[in-house]
Design brief:
The relative contact order is 0.18. Helix 4 (about 70-85) packs antiparallel against helix 5. The radius of gyration is 18 Å and the shape is globular. It has one domain (about 10-205): Vanadium-containing Chloroperoxidase, domain 1. The model has no long low-confidence stretch (mean pLDDT about 95). The protein is built from eight helices and no strands. By secondary structure, the protein is mostly helical. Keywords: Cell membrane, Hydrolase, Membrane, Transmembrane, Transmembrane helix. It is found in: Cell membrane. GO terms for molecular function: undecaprenyl-diphosphatase activity.
Length: about 220
């Protein structure tokens, strides 16, 4: 009982942030491997197509670009470099493992599952790579979780977590709106990256250690 009292937060994090996402990704991946259609994929894509208009096009294109080349990728690099410059080596190690590992995991999973992109209509931002899981979804939620976990034991945690949660949702929605990902690609990306990032956190900060504390 004393162990549970001292470790319940980390156990909860491991269950909610690692085991549940792994289970979710496994369920999605199993269906994709068997070429089974998800009942929610086509209706959500058709709804996105039905609401398309110029104003939405511009907004979702922006979030899609911020979710990768204009936002997440340069911010990832600056974050790791800033932590290294500040000599926050453990924090930088966590960020680096989470971010680089998530990107490599995405590349490997895309090749493994080789799922074709949706082709319901001609997208205004076409993609040529495989679809499952979404790289934008994985990259955005990895960055969000890295920042949230680093800030969680500070007074800034909700100032970081709330806007990053909204950002992750908008990036995911943008990929469906643009017709370049199935909703199941987004869910799988969120699940895989969440599990990886939480695993990296538990590895780099073991035994109840927290970011920003002296060694």
């Amino acid at each position: 009982m004393d162990f549970l009292r001292r470790r319940w937060r980390r156990l909860l994090l491991a269950f909610a942030g690692l085991l549940l996402p792994l289970w979710g990704f496994g369920e999605l991946a199993d269906e994709v491997r068997e070429a089974e259609a998800f009942p929610f994929d086509a209706p959500l894509l058709q709804f996105a197509r039905a609401i398309a208009r110029d104003g939405f096009d511009r907004a979702f294109l922006l979030f899609s670009q911020l979710g990768y080349q204009w936002g997440v990728v340069p911010f990832d690099a600056l974050l790791v470099l800033a932590l290294a410059a500040l000599r926050k080596l453990r924090e930088g190690l966590f960020a680096g493992i989470a971010i680089i590992g998530s990107a490599l995991l995405n590349l490997g999973a895309k090749q493994l599952f080789a799922r074709a992109r949706p082709s319901l209509w001609e997208s205004i931002a076409p993609e040529s790579t495989f679809s499952f899981p979404s790289g934008h979804a994985m990259g955005s939620i990895t960055l969000a979780l890295v920042l949230a976990l680093l800030a969680w034991h500070t007074r800034w945690r909700w100032w970081v977590a709330a806007p990053m949660a909204a950002f992750v949702a908008m990036v995911g929605l943008s990929r469906v709106y643009l017709g370049v990902h199935y909703p199941s690609d987004i869910l799988a990306g969120w699940a895989a990256a969440s599990a990886w990032t939480v695993a990296a956190y538990l590895l780099v900060f073991p035994h109840g250690q927290r970011p920003w504390r002296g060694r």
